[in-house]
Design goal:
- By secondary structure, the protein is an alpha/beta fold.
- It has two domains: 215 residues, Medium-chain alcohol dehydrogenases, catalytic domain (Quinone Oxidoreductase, Chain A, domain 1, Alpha-Beta Complex), CATH 3.90.180.10; 169 residues, Rossmann fold (3-Layer(aba) Sandwich).
- The chain has 13 helices and 15 strands.
- Strands 3, 4, 5, 6, 7, 14 and 15 form a seven-stranded mixed sheet that branches. It has a six-stranded parallel sheet with strand order 10-9-8-11-12-13, with helices on both faces. A two-stranded antiparallel sheet has the order 1-2.
- Helix 13 links the parallel strand 14 and strand 15.
- The protein is globular and about 60 Å long.
- Bound molecules: nicotinamide-adenine-dinucleotide and zinc ion (2 copies).
- The site of nicotinamide-adenine-dinucleotide has 34 residues, from helix 1, helix 5, strand 9 and helix 10.
- Nicotinamide-adenine-dinucleotide binds next to helix 1, helix 5, strand 9 and helix 10.
- Keywords: Metal-binding, Oxidoreductase, Zinc.
Length: 393
């Protein structure tokens, strides 16, 4: 089959790889009809490269049709239309029972000290072949696949694999009080969807980015947007719009590739130029994240407010302004999204004919796998109006 594979920093290729086969009795094989490209893939494309293996299949936002099933997959049937969560989880361990599927004790990658395995996400997360491919082996298929109705286009449901539950969790974790103001940092797919969810629930939302078409899309849905190329002190600007206090809650939907951290950016560049065998141990010990967005979040949140980190950070010892965080009495919440935890809450919005979250207009590009190298490049550089790419194998 054809698949998008990793070959080095900013080097993805579309290659023939062996078709996946059933390995366990609770596996299924899904023929992929749509597969998203995510901001998390950009970390693998750039900063997290040291943890990738040459030829690893990328991608973790799959949707498709069940083609084959093992003998222990419950009521999953060949021909079912399914979305598959980005994390691999069993549904019956203690963590899954708490709704903490990203900590699943059946799939935790213990030799790396990490939580649940993820599709297409480096050695840190189990090096499981990913979903930007024609077919995907789905482990834990007695629990993983989310069955969706026939009829509506894929995009109605595809974003249940990652974007929707991630944005939803970031919003729930932000715990915006009634009549409160939410500030969202970053208007990539995750930040923008978090804005849509908060607006749909009637909240006032401010948001920051530097990419004109991303700002415009959010503004079109009633978000008060701040262009970071023009506003040099986001905290001040937010306070000036919130009676001097700051936002009740802030979602950081930027993560480790943030703009505005010149020192860490230089560090990341030097780091990226080093041979891989040297950089993986450094990454485990050092702080290589660009912390600009977190610092902005800590500054712009009001005293006693909540910061919800949904952007991915990867270094082990980034310095944080602990003095300010403690003094401001911040509530800090974070983590990978527990996809299954939120599906039942989100589904009614997807089966609503009015499509209140605008899923059908969310993707800006639908392309074949063959265009993956260009799509990655455009998404990273934010060229060609690229906000959300969906591969259609
Ligand atoms: N926790 C999870 O489960 C989960 C799931 C999916 C994605 N993510 C993470 O969420 C983050 C966003 O993903 P995405 O797909 O939206 O990616 P993206 O890269 O398209 O979006 C990031 C946005 O942040 C903006 N930005 C950069 N620096 C900024 C700054 N200092 N202040 C404000 N905005 C800034 C960029 O211009 C860009 O629009 C990534 O870190 C990704 O890894 C987390
Ligand atoms: Zn993702
Ligand atoms: Zn589990």
């Amino acid at each position: 089959m054809k698949a998008v594979t990793w070959h080095g920093r900013r080097d993805v290729r579309v290659e023939e790889v062996p078709d996946p086969v059933l390995k366990e009795s609770n596996d299924a094989i899904v023929r992929i009809t749509s597969s998203g490209l995510c901001g998390s893939d950009l970390h693998l494309y750039e900063t997290l490269g040291p943890f990738m293996g040459e030829g690893d299949v990328l991608g973790h936002e799959p949707m498709g049709i069940v083609e084959e099933v093992g003998s222990e997959v419950g009521d999953l049937k060949i021909g079912d239309r399914v979305v598959v969560p980005f994390q691999i989880c069993c549904g019956h361990c203690w963590m899954c029972a708490q709704g903490l599927h990203t900590q699943c004790e059946t799939t935790q990658v213990r030799d790396q000290g990490m939580g649940a395995a993820l599709f297409g996400f480096s050695k840190l997360y189990g090096e499981v072949p990913g979903a930007q491919a024609e077919y995907l082996r789905v482990p834990q298929a007695q629990f993983m696949p989310i069955k969706v109705p026939e009829g509506p286009p894929d995009d109605r449901f595809l974003f249940l694999s990652d974007v929707l539950p991630t944005a939803w969790q970031s919003f729930v974790y932000a715990d915006v009080p009634k009549d409160g103001t939410l500030l969202v940092l970053g208007l990539g797919p995750i930040g923008e969807m978090a804005c849509r969810i908060a607006r749909h629930q009637g909240y006032r939302v401010l948001a920051v980015d530097r990419v004109p078409e991303r700002l415009a899309r959010a503004a079109g849905r009633g978000v008060e947007v701040l262009d970071m190329r023009e506003v040099d002190d986001v905290g001040e600007e937010v306070r000036s719009r919130t009676q001097g206090r700051g936002a009740d809650a802030v979602i950081d939907a930027v993560g480790m590739e943030a703009h505005g951290s010149p020192v860490a950016e230089l560090g990341q560049r030097i780091f990226n130029a080093l041979p891989k065998r040297l950089t993986a141990p450094i990454m485990n010990k050092a702080g290589l994240d660009r912390m600009a967005a977190i610092y902005t979040a800590i500054d712009a949140v009001r005293r006693g407010g909540t910061v919800s980190l949904i952007g991915v950070y990867g270094g082990q010892s980034d310095p944080l302004p602990m003095l300010t965080m403690f003094d401001k009495q911040l509530q800090l919440r974070m983590g990978q999204a527990n996809v299954k935890r939120w599906v039942d809450d989100i589904m009614p919005l997807l089966t609503d004919d009015a499509d209140p979250l605008g899923t059908e207009d969310f993707a800006t590009h639908r392309v074949p796998l063959a265009e993956a190298p260009t799509a990655y490049d455009n998404f990273q550089k934010k060229q060609d109006g690229t906000i959300k790419v969906v591969f259609q194998p």
